[in-house]
Automatic annotation (TrEMBL), chain A:
Catalyzes the removal of elemental sulfur and selenium atoms from L-cysteine, L-cystine, L-selenocysteine, and L-selenocystine to produce L-alanine. SUPFAM superfamilies: PLP-dependent transferases (SSF53383). Belongs to the class-V pyridoxal-phosphate-dependent aminotransferase family. Csd subfamily. It comes from Methanohalophilus euhalobius. It is an enzyme of class 2 (transferase). GO terms for biological process: cysteine metabolic process. The keyword DNA repair does not apply. The keyword Chaperone does not apply. Residues 21-381 form the Aminotransferase class V domain. Keywords: Lyase, Pyridoxal phosphate, Transferase. This is Cysteine desulfurase. Its EC number is 2.8.1.7. The lineage of its organism: Archaea, Methanobacteriati, Methanobacteriota, Stenosarchaea group, Methanomicrobia. Its cofactor is pyridoxal 5'-phosphate.
UniProtKB/TrEMBL annotation, chain B:
The lineage of its organism: Archaea, Methanobacteriati, Methanobacteriota, Stenosarchaea group, Methanomicrobia. Pfam families: SufE. This is Cysteine desulfuration protein SufE. PANTHER family: SUFE-LIKE PROTEIN 2, CHLOROPLASTIC, SULFUR ACCEPTOR PROTEIN CSDE. Residues 11-128 form the Fe-S metabolism associated domain. InterPro entries: Fe-S_metab-assoc_dom. It comes from the Archaea. Gene3D superfamilies: 3.90.1010.10. Belongs to the SufE family. It comes from Methanohalophilus euhalobius.
Length: 393, 140
């Protein structure tokens, strides 16, 4: 094991007698030793419930939890940790915003794109909003000049990076356009927080959602950035820990972030997000970005030079995922065969059925990269594809 | 209870590496007569997440027969094996059949409900059709 991969014990594994090549990172990333140890040590030495106890362990846990919030807050460039709420993940974060904004969304419109994950589609529909997609060209570049914001547009909800194509959307430009119309912007950063530097002040968004498990932290935890200007939103969830005064007649709520964290949160998960950020910072965000960009470009070039492979999407900036199909081969077959070659890819619609429909396909094979992947992994992917082709001829 | 056809399939797959098993499934898929486009209707579709599967059934001389097809070759190969086992049997026999060969040739993971080729839904559908046929024949 070389490079970053040696920090991730699972990557040492063999599957079906072959060294594992893990290329399903857009679904979830593996965990470095430092994150695994942090979770384990936390349960061994500091664990208790937070914010309510007067005893030693409760104070230790609360401190660690709030330290993690500060790390996340600094990592995304928030003004203060109060703008960061821990959630169960990106899906949960978006659902919470949809619930809180429901009164204004109902019967109105949310502007999205044609590449969205279902979790940035369904919650808005459930809140009673109609969806309209910003136009894009056939390579999936958003046509930002064509953005048409009407008086019915109550929110722009947009992915930073597509989980299918790896296309990077110009979210800063979108927030600038939105500001002219005083429409809030939510950024789904599930596929960008682990690849690109984020600065919510610079981006100018009002909400930003991300998952811990896609950025080397635990599952079941994520974050929602809510700009200070929405500090008095109706909380999506009610319960313990988020209230100021409760009577049977009336309840008043805490200030953010506790206002948005009803019940006992995933304490160890939140702390693992802090540990994951420590890990990435220790390895150097610039180093990671440079390395990932080299591997990604290499993968794209190798795939594009293959005769019988169609690669989807071609935008100015790309990272993370690459989706493709082999001519005449069902994506499911390709994925099964590659699995037995030790190469883990994802196949199917990737929870982006509207995008699949726009390509008139049922699904794709998706290779998605993380900091520990190398050009050798790409070579193994290509070997896998060649094997699939061979078995079909 | 053992079954000669299932035992034969198990022998064919015995000792094969994974890729050779897939090779054999792809070969079986190629030999399976494709279903007419016209028969690939929504009604004949078994909903699965990734590969699409179509099913038709007909009775001949009191025995039940199926046509199965899929847009994915490995799924279709599994369909070809299933057809060898279930076709041309009495409905009651199909409704109660223990398809032990699936586990024995290493395809058990394809059976879990979350698994995307929906093999479990296919088997469920085959058995439902067989049960309905049997129930109807007893009413008559």
């Amino acid at each position: 094991m070389t490079g970053f991969a040696k920090d991730f014990p699972i990557l040492d594994k063999e599957v079906y007698g072959k060294q594992l090549v893990y290329l399903d990172n857009a679904a979830t990333t593996q965990k470095p030793n430092s994150v695994i140890d942090t979770i384990s040590d936390f349960y061994k030495t500091d664990y208790s419930n937070i914010h309510r106890g007067v005893h030693y362990l409760s104070e230790r846990s609360s401190e660690k939890y709030e330290e993690a919030r500060k790390k996340v807050s600094d990592f995304i460039g928030a003004r203060n940790p109060g703008e960061v709420t821990f959630t169960a993940g990106t899906t949960d974060a978006i659902n919470q915003v949809a619930r809180s904004l429901e009164p204004s969304l109902k019967g109105n419109e949310v502007l999205v794109t044609g590449v969205e994950h279902h979790s940035n589609i369904v919650p808005w529909q459930m809140a009673g909003a109609k969806l309209r997609a910003i136009q894009m060209d056939e390579d999936c570049n958003l046509l930002l000049d064509s953005i048409d914001i009407t008086k019915e547009t109550k929110l722009i909800a947009i992915s930073h990076v597509s989980n299918v194509l790896g296309s990077v959307n110009d979210i800063k430009k979108i927030t600038e356009i939105a500001k002219d119309h005083d429409v809030p912007v939510l950024v789904d950063a599930a596929q960008s927080i682990q690849h690109l530097p984020l600065d919510v002040k610079n981006i100018g968004c009002d909400f930003l959602a991300a998952s811990g498990h896609k950025m080397y932290a635990d599952t079941g935890v994520g974050m929602l950035y809510t700009s200070d200007r929405f500090s008095d939103l109706m909380p999506a969830k009610g319960g313990g820990g988020m209230v100021d005064k409760v009577s049977l007649e009336k309840t008043t709520y805490q200030e953010p972030p506790l206002r948005y964290e009803a019940g006992t949160p995933h304490i160890a998960g939140a702390i693992s997000m802090g540990a994951a950020i420590d890990y990435m910072q220790k390895r150097g965000l610039d180093n990671i970005e440079k390395h990932e960009s080299d591997v990604y470009s290499y993968a794209r070039d190798r795939l594009l030079e293959m005769d019988n492979v169609t690669v989807y999407g071609n935008t100015d900036r790309m990272c993370g995922s690459i989706s493709f199909n082999l001519d005449q081969v069902h994506h499911y077959d390709a994925g099964l065969i590659m699995d037995k070659m030790g190469v883990a890819v994802r196949t199917g619609h990737h929870c982006a059925q509207p995008l699949m429909r726009s390509f008139a396909i049922e699904g794709t094979v998706r290779a998605s990269f993380a900091l520990y992947n190398t050009k050798e992994d790409v070579d193994r992917l290509i070997e896998g594809i060649e094997k699939v082709e061979m078995m079909y001829t | 209870m053992t079954d000669a056809i299932q035992d034969e399939i198990i022998r064919e797959f015995d000792g094969l590496e994974w890729l050779d098993r897939y090779d054999l499934l792809i070969t079986s898929a190629k030999e399976l007569e494709p279903m007419d486009e016209d028969s690939r209707t929504d009604e004949n579709t078994i909903s699965g997440c990734q590969s699409r599967v179509w099913i038709q059934s007909y009775k001949r001389d009191g025995k039940l027969n199926f046509n199965l097809d899929s847009d994915a070759m490995i799924t279709k190969g599994i369909m070809a094996l299933l057809l060898r086992v279930v076709n041309n049997r009495h409905p009651q026999e199909i409704a109660n059949i223990d398809l032990y060969f699936i586990e024995r040739i290493g395809l058990k993971s394809n059976l879990s409900p979350a698994r995307s080729n929906g093999l479990e839904s296919i088997i469920k559908r085959i058995k439902e059709i067989a049960k309905n046929e049997f129930d109807q024949s007893t009413v008559q």
